[in-house]
Amino acid sequence: MRRARRSLHPPNITLGAPAMLSWYAVGLPTVATRLENEKSLETPPVMLLLLFRASLLQFVAALALVSSPLWADGPPNIVFAFADDLGRYASAYADPQHPSPNDVIQTPHFDAVAREGTLFDCALISAPSCTPSRAAILAGRHFFRNGSHSQLHHPWMKGFEDPWDEVKGFPLILQDAGYHIGWSYKMHLSVDRMGGAKRNYRPAGSKFNRFSQTAMAADDHDAAKQKLLEEVRQNFSAMLADREDEQPFFYWFNPTNTHRAWVRGSGKELWGIDPDSLQGRLPKFLPDNAVIREDFADYLGEAMAFDAAVGVLLDELRQRGELENTIVVVSGDHGAPGFPRGKCNLYDFGTQVPLAIRWPQQFAAGRRIATPVSLIDLAKTFLAAAGAEPTADMNGQDLTPALLPDNADHESALRGYALCGRETHVDEARPGGLPYPMRAVRTDEFLYIVNFAPDRWPVAQPPLSAPLLGAKPGKDVRTSRRMDIDYGPTRDFFTEFETSDSIAAAWELGFGLRGAEELYAVKQDPDQMHNLIDDPQYAAQRDQLRALLMKELKDNQDPRLDNDAFDRPPYTPVRPQRGVPAVD
């Protein structure tokens, strides 16, 4: 039975409350116990330091919660605005010392959430591909633990037990706690984990997903944009109208307009982004030419459309008097599509996403956090705010201690690193339909990557212009072949000039074979172009990060470590002719 919001008598959270007990039973083992459990000859000092720091300061932060209720006016609503394929692009991230596309984009609504809440400088996803990224967030655990949902479109062979079946996920836990849950637009997951298809609220339609296509086709661009934003409002209102009385709600807003394809020239036409304003601001591994600048400008235009939609959600909450007791979170599921080293890659360009969290009644305002966090942390954070307990299988960390206004040492309450990885994105990128297996750990100073199959091509078996065996005659070979890079002008550019000396270095960085290990000093090398793995100066950091990553993978029973289980059924069917280029 659903419960109405308790508005007059907020709970007295004490050591006896279930939410408080979960701090100790799940998230806050004592420092001594945790260190004793982790202590071994194989545990490098940096790992013990991280464990000590996280445990001690989480414990201190928890003590601050014992005497203070989290709720100011009943359990909070939660609105999670989550853009498809949106990397770390918002004007709040503009930095005069580091020219970037953030200097060009304008996102006033994201900026407002960040200004009135907390802005995360280094938020990462679990996997730079839609299904595994979203599944990891919902489950609150690493992508590789999610069986059929650990790869794009959740492939799984019948007759095998599926680890995804054991996942409940935070939305259903919220529902059990009395929340009304719903979403609009894309889910890319088993909809039963969001209460079923009836909870997909789209009575006004789904044209927002094709924002630039719809607006550019209209005679009056501004009128068309407003109509699309009104669709967002009506869909959100339909979800709110379906709840009981003042029942708290969780709404997952999932537009796909930032996913390709968008209309060429729409960034300038609809949003006033001059492609030439990006000159000198693109990542250094991308050729800084007119084709790629225009492509990126169009991408940023779609990001501005998403931000306008966030503004609609905020306005609707404000008009209903719900904004002040609503946790608003704005983010994206991975990096930019259709550009090398972005989506499907473990460099920051592929894994970093925007993240801002606002809850003015309880969370700090104007805070900025540089320490890496993972979006799998959101599950425990939402549940803690709602007074609900997480499941024991969640890997994420409750971010609440880092968000509380009275926690002066808020960043030290965080674990200090995030894990990322990937397996299969599309099953035609390599012969046999095999994945490109990668895992990484990101700290505030380093990115360490393991490529488990360095003999495989990370994007696609070249030549990129070659069709696949069995391709239908008459198709444009430049656009008919699926790869681990989305279709678009930038991909076409690299395909057309893949043998040209003029882009040889950029092609190699984006499409060439990679070593078994990669190490980057991210502060000195923000675009991760200089692999330090064999540099003796960084041998200690390499060994420490390798040990940290492998321990996390082993502790969580990553199937990749089980004789490369992702390369065979039930994860990957045996299809030797799949993804084989037709080369003379």
Task: Give a short summary of the structure.
The protein has 584 residues and is an alpha/beta fold.
How would you characterize this protein structure?
The chain is globular. With 584 residues, it is an alpha/beta fold. It has helices at residues 18-27, 31-38, 45-66, 108-115, 130-139, 170-176, 211-217, 221-241, 266-271, 290-319, 348-351, 377-386, 400-403, 477-480, 489-496, 504-511, 539-555; strands at 77-83, 118-120, 123-124, 180-185, 249-254, 326-332, 352-353, 355-358, 367-369, 373-374, 418-422, 438-442, 446-451, 517-521. The chain has two domains: 78-152 and 164-358 and 386-410, Alkaline Phosphatase, subunit A (3-Layer(aba) Sandwich), CATH 3.40.720; 438-567, no CATH class. The longest helix has 30 residues, at 290-319. The strands form three sheets. It has a seven-stranded mixed beta sheet, sandwiched between helices. It has a four-stranded antiparallel beta sheet with strand order 11-12-13-14, covered by helices on one side. A three-stranded mixed beta sheet has the order 7-3-10. Keywords: Hydrolase.
